[in-house]
Design a protein that fits this description.
alpha/beta, 9 helices, seven-stranded mixed sheet, about 30% strand, OB fold (Dihydrolipoamide Acetyltransferase, E2P), Rossmann fold, 22 strands
């Protein structure tokens, strides 16, 4: 295409000679996806991250941020659609910040996720490790067993309840139906919204820090059918007890309705105090042949079917023979700890959440598992105080490690540097790293492999179809 300056309409072609600037509109060819889900284009060697576009698209986009090494743009119109585009099932896709890739062919989603895992290992970890093909999800819709919905107001001041508009933390829109949540979840949203409007209950205002209703969290045991409704509010209110009773009457599978009270300014759907409004304080779910009790604030994998495959990969990586002592760091409610206990002599779960530890201990008792214990505390401190791994462990302390295998499942930020250092000094013969963030996985695996480990294989598992997220299981062994 011949280069020329901005036209009267404010549109420039792809290869215009003028430097990119904020507010400029131009045509872009989308070549790839960057980590995190933004589309990627290049203009005269400069990288441009583009929202609302897919690889293979030719779009009309407007620059909204310009930096020295890159620019960010938002696609205004698709001029030539990618051959990988498919019709989206959900009407909210254009504005929703959730499953933005519903209009992206699923095999292409998997291909890009596979590439991103490999790129993170290569560029961030400087590793050449075998990456197995991504395990695809058997269900592409209605696979999430937990969804968080936010209360807010629309432009007219009317209460809304739904998900956030893409790019805005304070603009929830009214949800009609979510196609990745279970069907009952969307029905409970509509029921709760109607009740709140009828009772004139005020939503919480993030800027004024006033109001009542903050979140609605719906969890469902996919294999038990039990449903939990969790209302997060800034204070108690008599109407919420009526809401709990009405929800249980309208939805027979609702086994638990709880109220989480929080007075914090942070937008987090976790309360400092929990009250049971109706039914039981928890629900049940089955995973890995075991039954788990799940409370409102405890972590549980949100895709039950794929969690089974994630567990299978983790057990394969541990390669247990029956006589091992295993350490499970960031154990949560024991979703990995307890299945491991069925194959080992002893399992120690390290977890900072008091609620999660309590659930883990109850789950062990429920499943008649006696060789699993939970140590409550921050991983850094527990490794130091309970296993004697100080800031400078001596070589004598690690000559004969008492731990035969370690499993870690850290949050998205990855392992704390001190935790990673202590695990290296612990020197367990086998180490399994479960990650929901390929970038921090690549970084941490690189550090493990600089010292005394090597990566045998990595298994990506697609827990979250139609999103840029991917879960991975990495199998490491100590190299003496």
């Amino acid at each position: 295409m011949e280069s020329h300056e901005l036209s009267p309409a404010g549109i420039s072609p792809l290869a215009g000679p003028a430097p990119l600037r904020k507010g400029q509109t131009l045509e872009l060819e989308i070549s790839d996806l960057a980590y995190g889900g933004k589309a990627l284009a290049k203009v005269e060697g400069l990288v441009v991250f583009v929202e609302n576009a897919l690889p293979g698209d030719r779009v009309l986009a407007t620059i909204y941020r310009r930096r020295r090494q890159y620019a960010e743009a938002r696609a205004q119109r698709i001029l030539v659609p990618s051959s990988s585009r498919v019709p989206a099932r959900c009407t909210h896709v254009p504005i929703c910040g959730g499953c933005r890739f519903q209009d992206f062919d699923y095999p292409e989603q998997l291909r890009h996720k596979q590439t991103q895992v490999q790129d993170c290992l290569t560029h961030l970890g400087r590793l050449r490790a075998p990456v197995r093909p991504v395990l695809p999800a058997p269900k592409l819709f209605h696979y999430r067993n937990k969804m968080e919905y936010s209360f807010g107001r629309d432009e007219s001041g009317r209460l809304t309840l739904g998900l956030h508009q893409r790019g805005f933390f304070d603009r929830p829109f009214d949800l009609e139906r979510c196609h990745i949540a279970t069907p009952v979840s969307s029905e409970i949203v509509a029921f709760t919204r109607a009740f709140a409007l009828r009772e004139s209950l005020p939503p919480y205002d993030l800027r004024r820090h006033s109001g009542l209703l903050r979140f609605l969290v719906v969890r469902e045991g996919i294999r038990t059918g039990e449903v939990m409704v969790n209302i997060v509010a800034s204070e108690p209110h008599e109407a919420l007890k009526r809401l709990a009773a009405d929800v249980r009457s309208a939805f027979p599978n609702v086994a638990s309705v709880v109220l989480n009270l929080t007075r914090r300014k942070a937008q987090v759907a976790v309360g400092e105090e929990e009250r049971v409004l109706a039914g039981a304080p928890s629900i049940l779910e089955r995973l890995g042949g075991l039954t788990f009790e799940i409370s409102s604030n405890s972590f549980f994998q949100t895709n039950t079917e794929q969690a089974d495959r994630l567990l299978e990969a983790a057990l394969e990586a541990l390669a247990l023979r029956g006589g091992e002592r295993v350490l499970d760091v960031y154990a949560g409610t024991g979703t990995f700890t307890l299945p491991i206990a069925k194959r080992a002599t002893e399992v120690i779960g390290i977890e900072s959440s008091e609620i999660a530890v309590r659930d883990g201990e109850r789950n062990a008792a429920r499943n008649e598992i006696t060789n699993a214990v939970f140590w409550r505390g921050e991983a850094l401190e527990v490794l130091r105080d309970r296993l004697g791994l100080g800031d400078r462990p001596s070589t004598a302390a690690i000559a004969r490690p008492t731990i035969d295998a370690v499993l870690v499942d850290p949050p998205r930020a990855g392992l704390h540097a001190g935790v990673l250092s202590r695990l290296i000094h612990l020197g367990a013969p086998r180490l399994v790293y479960i990650s929901c963030n390929p970038s921090t996985l690549g970084r941490d695996l690189g550090l493990f492999c600089e010292s005394r480990y090597e990566v045998e294989w990595i298994q990506p598992v697609d827990m979250f179809p139609h999103t840029p997220h991917i879960e991975c299981v990495a199998a490491l062994r100590r190299v003496d």
